[in-house]
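Hi support team,

I'm opening this ticket because the web form for multi-chain structure prediction keeps timing out on my end. I have pasted the exact lines I submitted so you can reproduce it. The total is 438 residues across two entries, so I didn't expect it to be a heavy job. Is there a limit I'm missing, or should I split the entries? Thanks in advance, R.K.
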Amino acid sequence: MSETQMPTTRTRVVREADRAVYDRDAVYCILDEGFLCHTGFVVDGQPFVIPTSYGRKDASLYIHGSAASRMLRQMKDGVPVCITVTLLDGLVLARSVFNHSMNYRSVVILGKATLVDDPEEKLAALRILSEHILPGRWDDSRQPNERELKATSVLRVPIEEFSAKVRVGPPIDDEEDYSFPNWAGVLPLEMKAGAPINDARLDPGREVPPYLTSYSRRP
Amino acid sequence: MSETQMPTTRTRVVREADRAVYDRDAVYCILDEGFLCHTGFVVDGQPFVIPTSYGRKDASLYIHGSAASRMLRQMKDGVPVCITVTLLDGLVLARSVFNHSMNYRSVVILGKATLVDDPEEKLAALRILSEHILPGRWDDSRQPNERELKATSVLRVPIEEFSAKVRVGPPIDDEEDYSFPNWAGVLPLEMKAGAPINDARLDPGREVPPYLTSYSRRP
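Hello R.K., no limit was hit. The queue was backed up. Here is the completed structure from your submission:
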């Protein structure tokens, strides 16, 4: 599917179309800030939505998991999937109940997953997944062996049919409500890292690596 | 469906079954800490996964949205849905790449949504939704009028067929990896509120209400 066909009838944002984003670079920014997606697939007419981590390189989104998992067993057969990434940025408190909202950035990708079979590509994809979540960690860890690679399935979903929806900024109230005597504004929300917790069996004196002390998803 | 039938074959956790939780009270705790869910539904064989807020009362989960939205138009016809709530608690950094993981608590609910038609029940459900996200805010805001209530659809999903999956604690490494010379442990993650941002048109001197200054999802 070529870029110029975006959005498709399936990815066109129906409600609040002014919040729609179809620009690939803007979508990549959202995908790169997040690392948790919700993946939807269908079994016997029943949708399932499963949280999982992901990584991105160019127009490919990678997810992985145990070769034995329900999700990966289903998805590798090339069934239609939906991958959704949501970043929550704040509660938007308006004067009226009705105009309350949230600030968020979300991406919806529709497509079919394919199993990454080639051993080299699979290892590269696992590295992309790891570096997406925590840059620097892969080289700092014990590398995967044959058995572990076999127990892991990696799926690739092309980022071809997608849309994003973004809300930013203050509440938008009906004009006659601006005199309503309540507080109005935005309560910012952000996923934040706490202090790293040493494993109980860690060598005493081993220091927390720099990639952990300054961990933040915001660019 | 009675409690004793949990899990069904559809909600039984396949992978890492030791992380499975089928206890209703534990599931309610997770649902009450979160307020963002990812809702899956199927259109012409294609799954869609859409983020939305929710509220809970007893064994009912409520979501709402514009009567014109794709999701609500589809879901009110009693199609099968999946509602997933995920709380991310941390990155789990093991010695080996393979044993890296995340600490999380997630709930998956399968069921059919029904439109909340009765005006009194609808208003009550909207209040539940609002109070779920920000207790105290409803009474502090301009109440919904007829037109606004008409423009909003509320759906109820029964919390009957569900499962949860929970991972807590430190990395679990292969015994021979404990001597590997990297840092290992947990990087805690938590959704945190920043300082409230006054709307530009707010009356000068209006104070931030107490329900905002101490906002936290953790009980």
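A quick check on our side: The CA atoms of residues 92 and 161 of chain B lie 30 Å apart. Let us know if the file doesn't open in your viewer.
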